[in-house]
Amino acid sequence: MGEVFAGRYELVDPIGRGGVGAVWRTWDHRRRRYVAAKVLQQSDAHTLLRFVREQALRIDHPHVLAPMSWAADDDKVLFTMDLVRGGSLAHLIGDYGPLPPAYVCVLLDQLLSGLTAVHAEDVVHRDVKPANVLLDATGTGRPHLRLSDFGIAMRKGEPRLTEADYVMGTPGYFAPEQLLGAEPDFPADLYAVGLVAVYLLTGRKPDSRALVEAYADGIPPTPQGVPEPLWQVLGTLLHPDPDHRFRTATGVRKALAAAVELLPEDPAAEEEAVEVFDQVGPLPPGFGPDGPERPGGPGVPGGHGSGGRPASAGRHGAPQPPPAGPPAPPTPPSRPVKPPAPSPDTGGFPLPPPVREVPRPPEQAPPAHHPGPAPDPAPTPRTVPGGEPHRPPLPYPAPSPPPEPRRDPYADPYGDPYGDPPRAVAPPTRPYTAGHPPASVPVTAHPEPAPPPSAPPPSEPPPSVRAAGAPGRASHRAVPARKPGPPPAVALPVLALALLCIAVGLWALGQA
């Protein structure tokens, strides 16, 4: 595929070449149509200045082909314009030779109309010639002409980019005053229009030097092949003295309209109609009327082709079936999973908590000095009125819920068959306070092993006991509180350094 310029313009194929660059047929990914792009070949300051002048020209007229946009990528620059497919007037003369006078008058009127718009912007074209006058591919219909190539155009009063001894333009289409170093002006463009008209009527490039010599005794006689009424207009346009020419393109259009009324009828012109062919040619492989024919073209979001069709679409946009292949093996049925029961607090379905093994405390034998019955390993719960199971009281109040979800460390290590299942949010709330059973139900606490005599029963389990999850375990020590401030190993050197700084400061003050 073609090179993508500045992420937007995809160069397709070259369709022309000028003095400072090549013209390419280009696909504009943003406007989604084909345009003509003039790529600058040279990058010197002089050429860049002319490029900036040309791309800055914005003239909206049906018979003017002005730049639309421009872009720069690394060391290359280009500007774009509409793609005109019918070639130039030079192509038309090459196909047909001399053209009928009535047909030439239609072309001249359109060319003068475009020059009127250009001169209204105070711009002098300075390079009006058959190769810079393009045609739409209208076939045998009415021709449509567009003036192009504003590479050396300049506004009146702007500084010139050439030296005083050089003249910009095409040899053979210079006005005589340009060769003498005069400032560019509108009559110079009108002189070039006269030369283009003679070229269309005779099929040959006029000899500008011989024309100047022929005006030594006034307007020369009518050339062969040019009607007399039309020569009266063209003879005035080709006068060597700019003061004897038409001053404006509008004045030339009026004189040309009057001359058309006086033209004799030409039966030969009616027999053979002039046809403007498509001179650009077919698109190269890989490109279609809707753009590049490939999926995922550059600058096209969504993985679609540049023509706007999805990657699975065919040439005409119809979706294509997926490629045939062996059928996929059937998926084995999975075992049914029982959904978790809804949470009684929120009504949702909580995730199961992480599996964490709770250490089971070893059974402790009763001390020798405190005989008594052995603790019941599996106390039989009793039911209070209302259907709620009774749980044996704990030796201390229930701790507050931990910040992270975990099992209740103070739950019965042997499991409570009547308790709520553990949740991931917080431990279940007990229906009654452990230390205050209902007054209407007599409760008998099961005996618990007494702590050693030297350790009084704590009012609240220490952190080490809560972390271990064993309520009857007493092998712990209180962590001493840390005193505020740095340790002595750090404080003493810092204090000595401070005293030394004070001493140095006092000595410095004394020396001052």
Automatic annotation (TrEMBL):
It holds the Pfam family Pkinase. Residues 319-343, 350-382, 392-403, 448-464 have a biased composition (Pro residues). Keywords: ATP-binding, Kinase, Membrane, Nucleotide-binding, Transferase, Transmembrane, Transmembrane helix. Residues 9-263 form the Protein kinase domain. Gene3D superfamilies: Phosphorylase Kinase, domain 1, Transferase(Phosphotransferase) domain 1. Residues 309-318, 411-423 have a biased composition (Low complexity). This is non-specific serine/threonine protein kinase.
